[in-house]
């Protein structure tokens, strides 16, 4: 408040203070959406023991294990198949054939190993199979020459504006008993996710002494039952960093990058931590909270050139994945995403991103469509405002982790927060056509079909109508 106005006109100043206080209280302090009354029974979140059924191996010499697939190109006509053999390198060949043709084809991959502390990895194979037909079921086999195992996947429909497609959302999964419950709920959900958008923090191996990388292996065996049959789209979280300068590991992400390959070159990215894919009617941009993102950095430069390339006539749905959320009203990791928000949020509003999924906070939260881009350090306009061009921000870091649930929330609930709850679970983003997508969040303590939170998403390009009334 300027001192000249308060001395020349005290009543006006007092009035201004009252008005300001009212505006502030309604904009910031008043209760926002819903803080769920559901209180989860408190149990310890502990890792499943290494001899658990979920970590079991089929028998056989040099048997392939930890089989996983992800999209292998920009449009969905390629798949990267990865697996590990323990006894010897064996073959990096993938045999594959479509359901309609019995003629087997072959693709040749590569094998590598790495060391971390006193751990030496098995033989890690990665093989891209290309030129697949859209919308086709393929069988594939790995382990040629020794013990063979057979799996299958279905390629997505050709990219196009009205192609229905169902994505699952999982974050911060880990390998606890809760993680197993989350994965089971995802598998049993009648909405049938076709591809998982994974928002970071995979194994939590770094929670163990020497980041015991045996827990990277066990995690990959645990999730094989899903990720060998449908692609998981990977985002790097802080538990993928594995920074260990005391043993000379000064480059972050060593175990993660050896084990998980992504098609980053197909989107002209220069590093596997930020990239994009098209899948059916969605354009998915993956960002890295733990790589440089400031002005002039490779990630900044890439995203700046990437966003104008999105053609909403071809892919109406623009989805962004990152690990650290920008809008988070829990006390945990509070404001960790703030610096990246300051850099990129104006672009998200300008390019009308439909939804941003993040993890990191071990709980669930959904925002209103808000923008906080007006603030420029001198103008003092620092309150998020509703804006129909802005994305909905969803925190889905409730996969199971090992550190327990984030229960403390900032109070009162800020106006931008539409729904929040500290429970484990997963979500489904079910695209119907270019205008409509149905979103639901499923908590582990309910039956498989129960929706604890849901809303209809209206596409920001084709149908930019306020949809907040459609949420439960
Ligand atoms: C690595 O070191 C840890 C702790 O000293 C030990 O428990 C573990 O068995 C070692 N692992 C290997 C593969 O040598
Ligand atoms: C994990 O979940 C699966 C499927 O529900 C179940 O068969 C298995 O016994 C569970 N394992 C553990 C260790 O809880
Ligand atoms: C955008 O996609 C549509 C539909 O595929 C196509 O007709 C159009 O030419 C594309 N626009 C640009 C600028 O590439
Ligand atoms: C939403 O944000 C954009 C970009 O800042 C701005 O041009 C537009 O006026 C805003 N809309 C509303 C309704 O505030
Ligand atoms: C959570 O709240 C409790 C009680 O207010 C407090 O003791 C604790 O330090 C808080 N934890 C965090 C992480 O904020
Ligand atoms: C798009 O899907 C919604 C929800 O299923 C439906 O109500 C709407 O009619 C569909 N639009 C078109 C053009 O089919
Ligand atoms: Fe995290």
From TrEMBL:
Q: Does the record bear Iron in its keywords?
A: yes
Query: Which prosthetic group or cofactor does it need?
Result: Zn(2+); Fe cation
On whether Glycoprotein is a keyword of this UniProt record, the answer is yes
Residue intervals of the Purple acid phosphatase N-terminal domain:
64-155
The record's keywords, sorted A to Z, are: Glycoprotein, Hydrolase, Iron, Metal-binding, Signal, Zinc
Reactions the enzyme catalyzes = a phosphate monoester + H2O = an alcohol + phosphate
CDD domains, per database record: MPP_PAPs
* GO MF terms, alphabetically ordered: acid phosphatase activity; metal ion binding
State the signal peptide span: 1-32
In this chain the Purple acid phosphatase C-terminal domain maps to 390-449
What residues does the Calcineurin-like phosphoesterase domain cover? 166-364
What is this enzyme's EC?
3.1.3.2
Q: Which top-level group of life is the source organism from?
A: Eukaryota
Name the coiled-coil region(s): none
Can you tell me which family this protein belongs to?
Belongs to the metallophosphoesterase superfamily. Purple acid phosphatase family.
Q: What is this protein called?
A: Purple acid phosphatase
| Organism annotation | Herrania umbratica
